[in-house]
Amino acid sequence: MPTDFTATRALFDLPEGVIYLDGNSLGPLPRAVPARLQQAATAEWGQMLITGWNKAGWMELPTKIGDRIARLIGAEAGHVVLGDTLSIKVYQALASSLEMNPDRRVILSDTGNFPSDLYMAEGLCRTLGPEYSLKTVAPEDVMDAIDDSVAVLMITEVDYRTGRRHDMAALTAKAHSVGALAVWDLAHSAGATDVDVAGGKADFAVGCTYKYLNSGPGGPAFIYVAPRHAETARPALSGWMGHEKPFAFDLDYRPGAGIERMRVGTPPVLQLAALDAALDVWDGVEIADLRARSIDLCEAFIEQVEAACPMLELATPRDAAMRGSQVSFRHPEGYAIMQALIARGVIGDFRAPDILRFGFTPLYIGLDEVAGAVKILAEIMETGAWDRPEYKTRARVT
Amino acid sequence: MPTDFTATRALFDLPEGVIYLDGNSLGPLPRAVPARLQQAATAEWGQMLITGWNKAGWMELPTKIGDRIARLIGAEAGHVVLGDTLSIKVYQALASSLEMNPDRRVILSDTGNFPSDLYMAEGLCRTLGPEYSLKTVAPEDVMDAIDDSVAVLMITEVDYRTGRRHDMAALTAKAHSVGALAVWDLAHSAGATDVDVAGGKADFAVGCTYKYLNSGPGGPAFIYVAPRHAETARPALSGWMGHEKPFAFDLDYRPGAGIERMRVGTPPVLQLAALDAALDVWDGVEIADLRARSIDLCEAFIEQVEAACPMLELATPRDAAMRGSQVSFRHPEGYAIMQALIARGVIGDFRAPDILRFGFTPLYIGLDEVAGAVKILAEIMETGAWDRPEYKTRARVT
């Protein structure tokens, strides 16, 4: 049965008069979340108190939800766990990788990677010592830069600015061929594209849940460890929840079984409850259908914008196979244009220096919204409505 | 005006028929939290979507709430920030300390410290290399073990099992006298005792909020960096939210101003909203009043239990100055006794191998509950009601 995207759309609570093309920054509120949050706060925390860890199943939420996400990223069940933030999960994956490849000292990434991934790698190298380094090349040069000096390749599958998609299987195969490991950041691909970490042979994968998985602001991150590494990867961030027996309160750390060892501290139960409710939206969704519809939406947007707004330059690859589920255009006045759009109810995002970014999430966006957004964008460009001082004052967060 | 603890008690939603002496594991639900959570989910996330980061002030929550906690731990305003879990904050504090003391290789702690702190230190040492080590001594031997080999002293102010309280000022002074830094874990003292990180000259302090600060299961942790280190401590976990300009998306990390650099990833807005509401309880509370009443409650409990239950052995120091806000007793059948108590509505906690642990939080516990709990405990001990098979089967979480 093909996925019913009219039905999924009805599961979201979107404000009237808004065309929301920024689900790749923060997904909108699924209707089921407020009630689940209330349940977690009042019926669970309020009434069960400390016994909620057992009675309400809080302790198992990180792995139970991990299995729900595993299906969406092509991972084997039992090999994904939730917790912390994406930056922390990047650090865990990198530190484990470097420890598993002890004769090498280079983390390879690209300049299109999300800066926090690069910052975490920098921090890890500084902790490890001056012989360790982070090397970054241009996105299109990654394949050629993978050589036998590389300990671990760290790549974000879909570029947060341009929407360019890296070929996970090909880059990972090249990494493996020279004895390197591969860590994949799925921040802009989990829930957006047909991710396949098992098929792509990723060693580690990490991602966040507040974008296309709609868990709400600051929702927890996830980490995947390939089954072949599950019992050998040692966590550098060795917290009690990743211990073999957390409640034995032993003085020495022993890693827990498999993916459990990637847990660190006490799980954020309220945010996990919100995420759990948000994932209900995915129950009837086939990823192949999602991907097909995402491509339709992006193609339609590109075609219509290029026809109506010739002054905008496409920053996203034209080949659908090379894209995630977003479309970006460049314009020197991109910031002001985005503010004018937002003032008219079309919410996208601006990324320095000149990128207008639009995310297309088939769960709640259809061809009507594509046409509606293009109409407003075209009006703004034709009338120069963006050229007002209040659209040029930059807020701290955009 | 003295603190009105009748008023603070009315701010909590405690189940009928329960005497809750486990606020040192998980604080109960403040009545203001559910509405604040709903507001964050529906009015903020649901309606503001991505603009909530500015319009609802989400981005500033970690430092704004940090200032509210600063008052409760004797910290200077502007030097506490929220985020992550306590284990992650321990790692940050230790990694920064070791980097600030580069000629030394030893982390000194004690065997009464919470195991996750020790595990995180172990993990950090493994990442740093074989020349680094974690040394643990008995709690009473810490002072003598501080010598000029020690890079950083890592101590939890109040012992999670026995309630024994270390002397922050004295141990920190000794550490400084030999050129070591001091990291203090306030998990069992923030909101429970008269913590004074500035007066005690702590270099770093960390703590969790889901115990005596009542933020709910998995609420975020906090970190304090002494003002003298604010601009020099370099975070090993260098995430984008700790960058000088997160939204410039620079490729290189530059630490943010002061405490901001201890932020890592995207803050958990829903859990922070719950915490913010939970902290309203503290608005009229003077810490000196809290401490005085905490001592009264603990003294009364010790006196009454020792009179009624001579077979229980006090595990907590008899001198109030040497205690936090909990009282522990030992008994070989401690686990079964605690299950019998819980079955009768007195919720305390068991900690292996033989500790019955009772937390006394003046915000919602009074002398009536002390007497009520002792009455039930005495009945259980006199009748041997704990000696039933169902009380001896151990659940995963206790």
List the helices and strands and how they pair.
The structure is a homodimer of 398-residue chains.
Chain A: H1 5-9, E1 12-13, E2 19-20, E3 29-30, H2 33-48, H3 52-55, H4 61-72, E4 80-82, H5 86-100, E5 106-110, H6 115-128, E6 133-137, H7 142-145, E7 150-156, H8 168-177, E8 181-185, E9 204-208, E10 221-225, H9 269-279, H10 287-308, E11 313-314, E12 326-330, H11 334-343, E13 346-347, E14 349-351, E15 355-359, H12 367-383, H13 389-392
Parallel strand pairs in A: 2-13, 5-6, 5-7, 7-8, 8-9
Antiparallel strand pairs in A: 1-3, 4-10, 9-10, 11-12, 12-15, 14-15
Helix pairs in contact in A: 2-9, 4-9, 5-6, 10-12
Function (chains A, B): Catalyzes the cleavage of L-kynurenine (L-Kyn) and L-3-hydroxykynurenine (L-3OHKyn) into anthranilic acid (AA) and 3-hydroxyanthranilic acid (3-OHAA), respectively.
Family (chains A, B): Belongs to the kynureninase family.
Enzyme class (chains A, B): hydrolase
Keywords:
homodimer; 398 residues; alpha/beta; Aspartate Aminotransferase, domain 1; Aspartate Aminotransferase, domain 2; 7-stranded mixed sheet; 4-stranded antiparallel sheet; 13 helices; globular
